[in-house]
Queue: 2 jobs
Job 1
Amino acid sequence: MARFDKLEFNTPQKPDVDPEEIKRDDLDENYWINKATDNRRAGLYENALKYYSRALEKNRLLVEGWVGQIQMLVFLDELPEAELWGRKALELFPSNGELLSGRAQAFCRIGNIEQAYENCDGAFQQTGQSAYRWIVRGEIMTCTRQEKESYCFDKAQEADHDWLVPLEIAIIYLYYRNANKALQRARQAVQLSSESPYCWYIQGCCQLQLGIDGKARESFHHCLDLSPRHVGAGQKLIELDRNRWSPFHLFRRLFRLF
Amino acid sequence: MQCSSCQFENMPGVSNCGRCGAVLNSSPTPIDVYPPRARKWTKPFRRYFYFFTRHRIIPANLDRGLDRMVHNRMQELYDNRIPWRTLLRMFVPGWNQFYFNRKLQGRIFLWGYLFSLPLGILFAGTGYGGLLLGAALSLHAASIIDIVIANTRDREYRLVYSLFSLILVGMLTYLPAVELVTRYATPQQFLLNSPPFQRGDVVLYNTRAYVQTLPQIGDMVIFRLPNMRVPVGRQGHANVLVQFVGQTLIGRVVAGPGQQITFQNGNLFVDGRLSPWSQAFSEQYTEAYLNIVPTDRYFIMTGLPMQIPQQVWLNNTIVKSDSIIGKVYFRTQPLWRFGYIR
């Protein structure tokens, strides 16, 4: 009977397939590397790490992917993991300058300065030049409070004129509580790319650390104008509104006098 | 085949790059491309307990032509130096930890110190006060030793710098503070009931109160008595002596040098006038008694009963002026009777 022809009994259901998964198989490593870079430029390091890993799924011999993973682990403050991953990557690509620099950066932040210097010197002995090697060198000098770190960072900016370079230098200065120099580099990044919300956000963070609340507020507003859903900038503005002058904050600032 | 690491062109079939040694072909064994990740609790734990971070300053301005031994020695000195600003910050517990971004330790030292010290001062004179003051001093010392260890590398330098810093801070802060405080506010705890004070009361007395002035009538004073032996009876041909060990007592000055004391019907009269503190001692002093206070002595009522031998009573109540240690002016314990003593 025709009316019962369309009834379904125990028919196996096709599993729901993620459209992203369907697309994923067709995409090559360059797509994922570009996506990782875009997320990195937006300050979304977790996503960037994920996309670097996907790029390596396509091509395990992509050095840029390995270096990116180590850098993202460092920025995410997972330093022992970054050092371990750098060591593993160096087993595949021994004497790669970028990987040595990544491992040196992880050692520096862990506090093992001797190993950091060894790896950094090793990176400079390899062929090729890159901004990242100079950045790591500068970071080690910043960490050990030497005076010539700005020379290394200037060399990094000469090697690569991208705005991400001064921005990551500013992030390094902020990590070592040097907001003055961080602000200089953040301003350079903003001048190079005033349309990047992350540049404005980092500039605002530097101004906030220096106590220039008014300018910090403007920077965060600029960031929100460019990216209305920027979580970090929104939170900072809320904190600024809450943290008015109080004896407690004055007491805290007294500890920063020396 | 081009190496992806150094872009060197290798011969086909080669598994490793001839220049940098990088792997050229994907090996049959799978390579994990997902890095290990820290657990959720690991990152805050590492941030707070970052004890093993050591920042070593490599002396960049050393003259390379120096003798190796001198170079090593200078390196050692440079590695183990403590800047003067770090020494200065040691006077506040936790400040150096905040400066070197060790915030958890800084908070523990600072807030522990700020919690223990005022409470220790409030309960000074009691066992709890001693413990709290000891805890405050320990936290301060621990903050100094912690930062010395973080800034130095060698054991000898750690020992020397720790001792030096502790002595410096102690000499410049605690010694003058204790000297100043004990002159004007020394705590004394009552071990027995002594009206108007009870056992466990803690009072403060000023040892400098009578440097330029004399005790006034009505002052509550603390005084010390010498050891003495008093005959209380006879056994055969020998006197029976009782040893009274000198002690520290607190009492109120009721009459000064040259004044006449009279007890009548439980009332105390000084120079013929009823004393304002007569009612406080009316239970103990019931006998009629007449005396003139000698010069350079004071009649101090301590709450001792008159039933003890007369000589003992006299010695404990008619006191030489140089036996008076200080003036009792404040009660700190118990807290519900906290305040000035009138």
Job 2
Amino acid sequence: MYSINKLPKDEELYLTLRELYESYGYQKYSMQKFEEYALYADHKNFLTSQAVLTFTEPGGRLLALRPDVTLSIVKNTKADENFTEKLYYRENVYRADRSSKSFREIGQIGVETIGNLDRYESAEIVTLAALSLSSVDPDFVLSLSHTGFMAGLLDYASANNTTDRSFVADCLRSANTHELAVFLDEKGIDRSYTDRLSELILYRGSFPNALSLAAELAVTLPMKKAVAELSEVYANLSDSEFVGSLRLDLTVQNDLDYYYGLIMQGFVKSCPKAVLTGGRYDKLLKKFNRPIGAMGFALFLGEILSCYPSPAHDDFDILLLYSDDTDPAQLSEKARELRSKGNRVRIARSPIRQLKYKETVEMFGQGKAGTKEC
Amino acid sequence: MLKIALPKGRLGMKVYEMLADCGYACGELLEDNRKLIFESPENGVSYFLVKPSDVAIYVEHGAADIGVVGKDILLEQKADIYELLDLGFGKCRMCVAAPENYREDRSRPIKVATKFPHIATDFYSSRNQEIEIIELHGSIEIAPLVGLSDVIVDIVETGTTLRENNLRVFEDIVPISARLIANKAAGKFKSEELFSVVEKLKNRKK
């Protein structure tokens, strides 16, 4: 029989993760491929790319091939203060990336929790993110940060205009401590503070040690609250088997218009880019006039597939050859017999050099079938 | 093995000499040949020589763990990488330059000729100024002289080329120099080797 380890990585991953998410009580969410374009036009900053693939349906509505799943889930959620929805999905989205001049279909597996969220739910989402990454590769890193820490830092550094805020955000995102130090010097921030901040930005050690450093640097209320929340989430996870793979990482960023609170990015050893992003996005719910919490993440299957290609398998197992004088009933019976033993059987008139298979069985004429290994 | 992308040319050789001084030598790189990939297993490093404007792409996509590239290219391409060190050479400035007698006409968009459309757009949008970008690929200084543009946004080193063509710098946008960049995943999974290179280069700079 065809077994799970013959499946491509994305299918194998989906089966594993579906079982994981359902074991936590999450329900599968399915959706149409297209939404009204207005949904994305109104929330452009939530999207990773501004380009959206649109078309006009016969009735005249402007629709889009969805560039994102979360927006659709939020638009249609049944969650409220008394009911928390926990959903997972496997869908394709359609995006043009920064360097490409064309659109691509990108597979995603994701998880969303929407409703009255407390510290348990935050820890649960982080747990599912870590377990999802470990299903891809046991050698993974889950980087956590908090938008409140960066927002507080921007205020502390008197980065009051868009240009300055964008500059500081870029410096943090790219771990550019040398230019950030010059900027903070100009703003009159004490050099010793800047040095400790640079140390935290570049820190590669354990989460608790990074948290201590962050606590030292938390000089404004939003920063103190951010550190407290990170500590609380960590306290819920400190006994988990993946705790050594957690990092506090200020280079993780999401759009501040939508995300507030815990944010994360996941990396696995063989992939050069993040394969998971997510976080707390209550602000998006507020934009839909829903005063409830939301948190989730998405795994990027395309990136994972390109870094973990499926091992080369045979295209099928047995090529069953026939000729004009082969009895059709005997041919069908032979194929059925071979398939009942778990073989993948293809019937043809002649060998197929473009495909790979283990053996050939010939049923020429009315006589006994002859076999040949390939 | 740490994979390092170096820009072909003078800048790349200068960076290689610095890295070799820090213990990352790879003798065959200095040989006169057409090879593009060089390995030194004993020093735990391999080098690629690539087009300068492609270094950040190799690093972002993980084909190289670290690379050296000008800040102008980083600002223009906006690659998702770590920028870990200003190497302190290859210094120049990104500037707005125009003919000596240029006067800004605020009643219409400014025509800007440049090889750096993103840098130019970001600069003028921070001023809320409307512009029309004319993207060129070389000899940008000619554009305002033949009426193709009002101004140029380009790299200025000594300013000689501008002066010889009766152009002058009107505004400095940002200082440029060679930067050491790293792939984000390598920063997590090869952090010891990677940051060891950074520290050695930093100490050498001092």
